[in-house]
Design brief:
single chain, alpha+beta, DNA Primase, Chain A, Dna Topoisomerase Vi A Subunit, Chain: A, domain 2, five-stranded antiparallel beta sheet, globular
Length: 307
Amino acid sequence: MNCKQANENISIKEVMESFSLFPSKEHPKTAYYYAINRQERTPSLLVNYVKNIAFDFGTGKQYDVVSIVQELKQCTVSDALEYLEKFDFSFQKQKGNLNNPKEETKSYQILEVKEVSHPALIEYLKYRKLEFQKSELQEIHYEMNGKNYFGLGFKNDSGGYEIRSRFSKICLGKKDITTIKNNSENLKVFEGFTDYLSFKILEPEKTPSDYLILNAVAMVHKTSGLFGNYKSVEMYLDNDRAGEQCRDSILKIFPEADDRSNEYFPHQDLNDFLISQEEKTLENKLEKNQTAIHESEENRNIYRRKR
């Protein structure tokens, strides 16, 4: 992904939400936010949802998606693009809806939903070490802008699908959280479904908890009413700034929530940790095999010398 793709396809509103920044005053196409780099009593940052830009009336500075991440994270362009990798390419669809509020355009069509069986998707799951969790997902074939695609689908609470493959990271339908209820008093919170599936492999539970998959840190604002139903909450969020801010948002709502991210630090998330564990296991096996081969050669040499 380059700067042009990020600025044209990622919603600046969703980026702001990922930093727990929300409008002070909002209209359908624009909103006023407090400045992102100073304290102020009157909001002076105007965000234009249609143009996907922000303008700070206090400094005269204009931001696009990439530059506002740079300002918030105080980072380079490449670091900003890396941060933006986790966002869906949803802005063009939102822009169409803003320009035609009474006519919600649908730029895609789901052609088929079936069990995961395509070799490319099985291979992708193996790469993520999640092949044994394929029953939790569906294979989605869809048409977008006149072209046919397919990917792994994870359904959210609004009936939309988080789509993932080696080449796609989008949401078909309305963006939303996913809740999985097992009548438990414990809730476990994950940023994405690969983290949820990784947890099921790393720590299989005899008595399942309830699970909340955010599907994007920006969706944390939709969860405030959920936590009151539980005696305990465990957070398995990413070890990055967005994950930290998401944890802070949840702790404001449920101060007793348990942050479990130290269990897989310094890895960024649970799936990275799972992959690293698999690689360590393979390395140990190879090391044992090499040791066995070496010992076998030594024994042969000793036998030859004795003869």
